[in-house]
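just leaving the lab so this will be short. what follows is a protein written twice so to speak, once as letters and once as structure tokens for the fold. can you read through it and tell me how you think this chain folds. thanks a lot i owe you, the record is right below.

___
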Amino acid sequence: MREKVGDLWQQTGSWKCITTNACLRQNGKLVMGAGNALEARNRFPGIDLVLGGYIKLYGNRCFRLPKWQIITFPTKNNWKDLSSFELIQQSCKQLIEILDKFKIDEVFLPKPGCGHGGRSWKAVKELISPLLDNRVVVISMEKDI
């Protein structure tokens, strides 16, 4: 895992992860109401409906969305909860499987579970460092990553 200070959305030509939950609205759309999930929903109309369908069929897991060069990275089951360390670990493993399977050389990942997930970067970094390789670039606008 590498770390970088910068804006997720200004990383051109590379895959980006967005942190997600598993809450579906009555209309079948995934709740994407804050953080980088909200930014993705605003940038890519319809992504919330696509993800809602995938979660309904396959559960709360990582999904690869080639149309937008997005990989989802679940950190919560319910958007109201703190991010789950267990789910973050599971998402790390699934992310590496996706990178291997589709031969993806680089993906940018915001600090998972930090921001609206309520977890400290110190705790999350300790958890995910052994699970991620140098294809994963953890990116943050903050200088203290």
Residues 44 and 101 are 25 Å apart (CA to CA). DSSP finds four helices and six strands in the chain. The longest helix spans residues 85-101. The mean pLDDT is 95.
